[in-house]
Amino acid sequence: MAELSEFGFRPGLSFLHRLDARFKLLFLLLLSLSILRAEFRGLVFFTALFLFCILRIRISLISLIKEMRYFLLLLFFVFAARALTVPGEKIFQYWQISLSRQGILEGCLVCWRLFAVVLLGLCFISTSRPSEIRGAAEYMLRPVPLIPEKRVGIMLSLLIRFIPLILNQAKETAEAQRARGIEQRKNPVYRLMKFSIPFLRRIFEEADGLVTAMEARCYSENRTPPEYKAGKEEWIFLLLAGFVCAMVLFIS
Amino acid sequence: MEIIRTENLRHRFSDGTYGIDGISISIRKGEFVIIAGANGCGKTTFLRHLNGLLMPCEGSVMVDGISVTSDPRRARQMVGMVFQDADSQIVGETVYDDVAFGPENLCLERAEVRCRVESALESVGLSSFGDRRPHLLSGGEKRRVAIAGILAMQSEIFIFDEPFSNLDYPGVCSLLEEIRRLHRRGHTILLTTHDLEKVLAHADRLIIMQQGKIVRDGLPEECVKGSDAFGVREPFASRQGMELSSWLN
Asked: Computed from CA positions of residues A103, A104, A105, A107, in that sequence, does the dihedral angle turn out positive or negative?
């Protein structure tokens, strides 16, 4: 996990870096909804826009594609499922399997939409500090009844912090098991049990240590509130984004 | 001037055994104290009473004249702790966020938080690390981040629980230099270890524990003689009757 570096905050001074995270979260919602309704022309516009942003943030496209390889594989399965199941004008048939023109077009559309949403998410994550995202999430959850937004915020931040550690822990446990010949045992239930018990025990022990460490640093829910910096720029950009989304949906 | 005082401190675990048993000590402001002992002798249990992470079953702990039991929050602000496992201590998603965690818990103004974090990171030589993700740092860097987190809370007392474990030689030297610097600045240092070789030359006082009790307490060069009997290896220089030497020389 340590090498998974493209999907994380990258310091910078770009326009996106300067924007208030609450507005960026709003753009993320707005643009995602528009993307999920956009047709090919709209998707061309969005993809070009996001690729431009990604290049401005200086993310290497090659390493990005490498890190997205499993997601791209998933998209391939989504495409295949659509292409093979949507009825329409057949362009290829072998035994019971047939590909339709409509299926291929629909598969492309769905995959492109999902890909565009991921690119948008990458633009958001790369230009927002995790603490800003936490602050934005806390702000958005504030009006929602029965949800302790500060607690959700701290849980979100701990999750972001501890995912790499949990994955490292899983890797270490798996390696330790392999070193003791677990691969000789073919029963997957046995292997899963032998993996999950020590893994979960270590995770809970670490969680216990974390609680102690947080207490040692005076943790309470009453903390310095997150910093927000919304100005004229953010409102103009919000109007612009709303207008662009409406236009894209209109031309699609 | 006395900064920590414990009186007949006892802590009993849920299985009925005593983690610490009748510890009474006084620590002066600015003192560098090493607490040594074999694994399970009660070092960590004792330290956790000093900032209210554990509460005594019997006896009392006073930090700067105020009981820890009556005001644990103040004790935690005054007594900063660097844990043995730096990975579970670092809670921030970035180095900056982690150092800011303590000051934010103290509800300081945002500008004050920023000022303290920048100053703390500069003190430990990590000014350019603010946006780095903690899990990508080396063991020594992680401990320096933990120290910066305590500096940002402006704690007077630093507690290091086995700080040199899992560190390579450069990591140990760098951390030792950092601890010396904190001591020179007037901070009170309490450090637990079972490996005295690395740090004893810098200490003002050595306390050796065994089975939850203090069995030796005094000047390092005197107390360390025959420490093997308590599960703590006597440094080579001391065995040879030579002066204790620093790893930093």
From this structure: positive
CB contact under 8 A, A11 and B131: yes
CB distance B223 to B216 below 8 Å: yes
Interchain contact, B93 vs A130, CB within 8 Å: yes
Residue A89, Cβ density class (10 Å: 0-12 exposed, 13-18 middle, ≥19 buried): exposed
Nearest to B219 by CA among B243, B236, B240, B194: B243
Residues 127 through 156 of chain A touching chain B, CB cutoff 8 Å: 129-131
Q: Strand locations in B102-174, DSSP E? A: 157-161
Q: How many other CB atoms sit within 10 Å of the CB of residue A249?
A: 14
Interface contact B107-A206, CB threshold 8 A:
no
Q: Which residues contact A98 (CB under 8 A, 6 or more apart)?
A: A84, A90, A92
Cβ pair A209:B131 closer than 8 A = no
- Strand duo B66-67 + B79-82: pairing: unpaired
Distance to chain A for B100, nearest Cα, Å:
10
Distance from CA of A62 to the nearest CA of B (A): 22
How does DSSP assign B131-145, residue by residue? TS-GGGS-HHHHHHH
Contact B111, B103 (CB under 8 A): no
Which CATH homologous superfamily contains domain B2-89+156-239? P-loop containing nucleotide triphosphate hydrolases (3.40.50.300)
Residue of B nearest to A161 (CA): B93
B104 touches chain A (CB under 8 A): yes
Q: Which residues of chain B lie closer than 8 angstroms to A210, CB-CB?
A: 88, 91
What is the complex's ipTM, to 2 decimals?
0.85
Domain ranges of chain B: 2-89+156-239
Q: Does A157 sit within 8 Å of B102, measured CB to CB?
A: no
The reply to whether A8 touches chain B by the CB within 8 Å rule is yes
**CA-based R_g, chain B, Å:** 18
pLDDT tens string, chain B, 249 residues long: the values are 899 999 999 999 988 899 999 999 999 999 999 999 999 999 999 999 999 999 999 999 999 999 999 999 999 999 999 998 888 788 888 899 999 999 999 999 999 999 999 999 999 999 999 988 888 899 889 999 999 999 999 999 999 999 998 888 888 999 999 999 999 999 999 999 988 999 999 999 999 999 999 999 999 999 999 999 999 999 988 888 888 888 887
